[in-house]
Amino acid sequence: MSLLAELKRRKVFRVAMLYVVSAWLVIEVAETVLPIFEVPDGFLRGLVVLLVIGFIPALGLAWIYELTPEGLERDTGGSGKPESSAGTGHRLNWATVVVAVLAIGFLALDRLVSEDPRLPAPEAAAGAAAGAAPAEPAAPAAADRRPSVAVLPFANMSTDPEQEFFADGMTEDILTRLAGVSGLRVISRTSVMRYKDSELSLPAIAAELGVDHVLEGSVRRAGDRVRITGQLIRAADDAHLWADSFDRELADIFSVQTEIAQRIAQQLELQLTDRDRQLLAQQGTSSTAAYEYLLRARALERRVLSTPAEIAAAVDEGEGYLGLALELDPEYAEAWALMTRVHLIRSSIPGSEQSASEHWERGVEAARRAIRVAPDRAAGYVALGRAFQLRGQHDAALEQFRLAADLEPGSAEVLHPQGVLLAGRGELLEALEKLERAVALEPGDPGLLNSLASVYMWLADYDAAEAAFRRAFQHITPHPERLECVLMSLALEARDLAQFEAAAKRLESTVQHPSFGTGCMISFHFLNRDFAAAAHLVEEHRAFVLGLWPVTAAGVLSLAGQPADALIEAAEQSIERAVPRGSEGWRLFQRSRLALMRGQDEAALDLLERAQEAGVWPSAAEFALNPLWDAVRDDPRFRAIEAYWEAERRRMRDELAARRAAGA
């Protein structure tokens, strides 16, 4: 008898098939169940190796023994009963089929069920969260096809709730390391922190953020020991791709962050460049104490503050923590970059101009120190760019943001200010490209969505603008006053006066003066030429309005026939203040409006022409409806400027339409 025939007679092939199918089922079950109990990833790999090794002994046993109705008997080489052998073969066939059906069924269930059955579906959960509000719009679609991940806030499992800042710090630093990988799209911090303690299922969160994968975990700190767990989940089928836990000394915290980020990159099969590996392994300081002070200062920066007193107290406390961090490690670049933020906030707080300039200079020096210490990291360039932006030096700011983008091209923190500055000088298509990329990385930042919606509005894409405004101020951060204000601006830009008045009426019924809505109501009355009503609001909330909108207040009172010389002087001083300060074009434009209030029409047109040359970009509705321009509206110089800006808008709108048609 040939070897092949003997293998068939002894049912070695059937046993091999049954073994392979059974091993497949075991691996499928283990792959799904083990991560739930936080079993280390190495256990699953060991199980696979054991199953592979066990294949050969299984074939050997099939050759030596035969399964009979009486049990296992040694095969002596063909003496068995034919009917017994046939029955054994049938039983092996049926066993293989049953195990295969179980494996296929388990695989299908695991792949097709994309939500936790204990939780409501994403649509239901979103509806419950929003009450009667419409479902939250999806984040703007992006052309970025890279694998994507959202690092959700790690849970603080420490007995001390004050350690929340430490858990948040772990989240942000793992996120930052992953964001440095060029082949991966990582959702930025502002968006993911919205889901802290969220009851939404992971697939629902992933759908809202537009990502393929979610990383979640926990942090437990006890003295100088820390335990960090993490698990990577594929959003499409809720499958656990990786899970592990790390029990280390606090001094090893940086290596744990790097190891977790590296594991994620491996699981997603990313091809890492040398630069990627460098960013994954970067360590800002060797001092864990300095690192902890930095995390405490960073937590203060993220805190929501309402009053000037709260802001001042937080700035003082944050500066104290950063000072301690820099005493321990004077070469700590991130601490220097954050110290810039402290000084820029101080320079923006109302007070003496000398004090503001001094704090601005100190902020610039801190940013330059961050760059000197770590020229290969973006934080210092971003900090210096913000300082130049606050001083109105927009060209210098854009150059710093460009340098930061060269180092971290996938940072929303860099893309957002770039987009805002480009939009302010009329480069709307370039601004749109930056802001759409930023929103793809940070879909849950209402300020970023507001900037994007404004550019959509100026490019006459009113539907996209409204969707972005509503996502920002109706769904992500509900703010009825702010929403109605921006909808008023949108209706005004679209020349839809009926919607403009409707939004104003909704705002008037909800506004709590003095507030953001106060300025919107003043603008509504002013543009409707009800100067008395606008002036009444200015006088009623004089200090508040003058602090935020001095030029508007001066314009209202001047057209209302009330004494406005003092307000005009105060507005001019605020425009020329050293810090904070608008761009040259913006300052020239505002001075042109002040000249009109003084009745200096020719001087106003001279200033307006210079503003145009400097690259300022006013709203289209500004010229169409603002009564300040009535004095020069028929002047040929004014009409030429207005025609230039309208032609530029039309050109960019046509170019955008052509781009979208080509990409459709």
- Percent of residues in helical segments? 55-70%
Look at the helices and sheets and give the structural class. alpha/beta
Number of helices: 31
- Second-tier CATH architecture of the domain at 140-279: 3-Layer(aba) Sandwich
Radius of gyration: 32 Å
The CATH homologous superfamily of the domain at 140-279: TolB, N-terminal domain
- Contiguous uncertain segments of 5+ residues: 109-142
Q: Within the CATH hierarchy, at the fold level, what is the topology of the domain at 140-279?
A: Rossmann fold
* General shape: elongated
| Termini separation | 67 Å
Mean pLDDT: 84
Count the beta strands: 8
Strand content: 5-15%
In CATH, what is the class of the domain at 140-279? Alpha Beta
Could you describe the largest sheet, including whether it forms a barrel? 6 strands, mixed
Model description:
The structure is a single chain. The protein has 664 residues and is α/β, with parallel strands linked by helices. Among the domains are: 3-112, no CATH class; 140-279, TolB, N-terminal domain (Rossmann fold, 3-Layer(aba) Sandwich); 284-408, Serine Threonine Protein Phosphatase 5, Tetratricopeptide repeat (Alpha Horseshoe); 411-418 and 430-510, Tetratricopeptide repeat domain (Serine Threonine Protein Phosphatase 5, Tetratricopeptide repeat). The protein is built from 31 helices and eight strands. Strands 3, 4, 5, 6, 7 and 8 form a six-stranded mixed sheet that branches. The protein has a two-stranded antiparallel sheet with strand order 1-2. Strand 6 and strand 7 form a beta hairpin. The N and C termini lie far apart (67 Å). Residues 109-142 have low confidence and may be disordered.
